Structure formats: C-alpha cells, structure tokens
C-alpha cells in the first residue's frame, strides 16, 4: 500500500479521541494534500549537541578576568550558535517546579474550556489554523500572555494559585532577560540601559507550551521550523527533549539539562548587531509516547521602537518592531512561514550574512 494511503487510514482510526483535536485538524489537511509527504526531511538529525553552558555567577565574580571570560562566553555563543544555556541564573528550582505543576494542571482541563473560557487573556491557541499542508502544522497547544496581563485577576478564573506563581516567574524571567540583554548590548558598545528603555511589558510575552504525544509519525513537528521575532528568548523546558536547531547547515538535537535555561537570539538582535549575533532557525519534534512542557519568555521592544544597526554600513534597513511584526504576519498568512530579516536586507548586502532558511 502507498505510504500516504497507509498513513491516512491510521489517522482516520486515531481521530476518534483527541484533546485538543490535533488529529482532526491534521487529518483534514492531510486528506486534502495530494502530493506524497517528504518522509525523510525531519529524520535527517543524526547528532545530539551540547549547547555552550555558561555559569552566570562569573559575571559577579570579584576577579575581572573571570567576569570578562563570562561576557566573552555569552557573546561568543550568541555569534557562533545563536543559542546557549545558563546556570546560576537566579530562578530557583522550587519556582520552576511550582510553575510546571500549575502549567500541567492548566493544560489538563478539557479543550472546550481552554478554547472558550477566556483564560490568560483569551490567549489559548492550538495546532496551526493557517496551515495548508502537513509540514506547516504544529502538533501543540499554548497560552501566549503579555506581561501586562500576568497580574490581572480576571485572567485566571478558578486557577487562583497559578496567578501568584506566574507573577513571580514572569518577574524572574523578565529580570534575567533584561540582564542578558544588557550584557549583549554593552558588548556592542551601548549603555546597559538601552534594552531596558526599548522594551515594553505590553509586547514582552510568556508562552506556556504543551506538546502532546503524537501517535502518527515522527515527521510531524510539535512546532514548525522558525526564527524568533524578538531580541532574545529564554526557554525553561522539561527533560523530554525535542528542541532542534540549525548548526552548520544541518539539524542537531539539543540535549536537555535539568539545571539550565536555554537562551536564543532573535531577529531583532541580529539586525541591531549588524549580523554579529545570530538568529538561528529551530523547531520542536514530537514524541510518540511522551508529552512535553516548556515555558518561553520573549524580550521585545515597544511597537514603535526603531531597530537599526549599531554600526555602518548596515546589512539591514531601519524598521520599527510594528513594521517587522506586520510583515511576519503577512508572510505567515500568505505562505505559512515566517520569512523574517531577509525582507529587510539593504540591497546588495545579502552576501555578508548566512541565511537562516534552508
């Protein structure tokens, strides 16, 4: 039997019990997508990488040599990898555990309630509503809440205990993001307050992610390949794993570290640093038997903030964060994908950077 036909039969059988209805949505896309799926594309990952691991206690060391080495490690990883891990980051294991426990309780409620009861600023999302083919579909669900709403009692309904933990966790992640942002900007010759002055609670977000076990195929992605539309992202994940990033033109799997948080550079820092720091394409793969939870913090500027290179000649033309977001949303609407910074390249300067897309 043809691979596509076998898979569709399996999806049809499995569709009877799905919460959220990821199988239903994926099955509808699959049945209307006539070409055979590329079953090899997401199976080519053969390496597991250990991201650069940086102990942030070095930044407060009395020895200037140790402090400078820590800064060099952060900035070097941001340039070479676009990703790194941090230890001694100031967020206690106890707080992480409390946040994870509340997150699990939240996602365990029935889909109908999550989708309709207005929880967390009515920010619940699942699957990929705009996807037109299986490779654009994300097998996951999430709440995506702006910092300005984290303390709003009206957002939590019966989940009263979640509010206190969210407030504490968001404040800790915000402090860490601002601190790391100031280190990266200072390395470019800017004052440490630049990031703080640019960023806005109304555009910074916490995203609570749940990746359900996927019984169909490892080729289905939990989160489709993308680049982040911010200055930087901080990720707190469990031990299931699934994060993959593009390194040296191939996908590599990130090995989870129980004690570390993952930091990655976004498009805005790549533009602002004139390509010194790299915004790297990444994705999340599914697991056939285990569900995965993560929390991401996105450090973003106000919508009217102007993003321009710290030196000339600039690779990218100046743009506002609003202009960037509008372009990203338009691209996703039309193509199903983020295009990102290539839309803002100065004519003739594209040969100076390495593209993020395959």
Automatic annotation (TrEMBL):
One of its GO terms (biological process) is gibberellin metabolic process. Its EC number is 1.14.11.13. PANTHER family: 2-OXOGLUTARATE (2OG) AND FE(II)-DEPENDENT OXYGENASE SUPERFAMILY PROTEIN-RELATED. It catalyses: gibberellin A1 + 2-oxoglutarate + O2 = gibberellin A8 + succinate + CO2. This is gibberellin 2beta-dioxygenase. The keyword RNA-binding does not apply. Keywords: Dioxygenase, Iron, Metal-binding, Oxidoreductase. InterPro entries: DIOX_N (IPR026992), IPNS-like_FE2OG_OXY (IPR044861), IPNS-like_sf (IPR027443), Iron_ascorbate_oxido_reductase (IPR050231), Oxoglu/Fe-dep_dioxygenase_dom (IPR005123). It holds the Pfam family 2OG-FeII_Oxy. GO terms for molecular function: 2-oxoglutarate-dependent dioxygenase activity; gibberellin 2-beta-dioxygenase activity; metal ion binding. It is an enzyme of class 1 (oxidoreductase).
């Amino acid at each position: 039997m043809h691979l596509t036909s076998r898979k569709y039969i399996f999806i049809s059988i499995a569709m009877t019990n799905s919460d959220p209805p990821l199988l239903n949505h994926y099955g509808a896309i699959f049945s209307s997508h006539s070409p055979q799926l590329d079953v090899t594309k997401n199976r080519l990952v053969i390496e597991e990488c250990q991201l650069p691991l940086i102990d942030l206690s070095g930044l407060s060391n009395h020895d200037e040599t140790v402090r400078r080495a820590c800064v060099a490690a952060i900035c070097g990883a941001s340039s070479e990898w676009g990703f790194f891990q941090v230890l001694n980051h100031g967020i206690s294991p106890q707080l992480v555990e409390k946040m994870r426990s509340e997150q699990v309780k939240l996602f365990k409620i029935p889909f109908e309630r999550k989708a309709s009861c207005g929880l967390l600023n009515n920010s619940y999302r699942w699957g990929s509503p705009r996807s037109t083919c299986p490779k654009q579909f994300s097998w996951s669900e999430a709440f995506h809440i702006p910092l300005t709403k984290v303390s709003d009692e009206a957002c939590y309904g019966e989940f009263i205990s979640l509010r206190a933990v969210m407030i504490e966790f968001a404040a800790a992640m915000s402090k860490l993001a601002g601190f790391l942002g100031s280190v990266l900007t200072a390395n470019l010759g800017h004052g440490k307050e630049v990031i703080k002055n640019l960023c806005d609670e109304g555009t910074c977000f916490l995203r609570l992610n749940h990746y359900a076990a996927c019984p169909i195929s490892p080729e289905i992605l939990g989160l489709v390949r993308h680049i982040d539309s911010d200055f930087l992202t901080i990720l707190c994940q469990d031990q299931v794993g699934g994060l993959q990033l593009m390194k040296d033109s191939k996908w590599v799997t990130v090995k989870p570290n129980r004690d570390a948080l993952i930091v990655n550079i976004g498009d805005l820092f790549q533009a602002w640093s004139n390509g010194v720091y790299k915004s790297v394409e990444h994705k999340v793969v599914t697991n056939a038997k285990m569900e995965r939870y993560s929390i991401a913090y996105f450090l973003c500027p106000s919508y009217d903030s102007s993003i321009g290179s710290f030196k000339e000649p600039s690779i990218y033309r100046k743009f506002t964060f609003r202009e960037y977001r509008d372009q990203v949303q338009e691209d996703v609407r039309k193509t199903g994908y983020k295009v990102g910074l290539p839309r803002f390249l100065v004519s003739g300067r594209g040969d100076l950077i390495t593209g993020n897309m395959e």
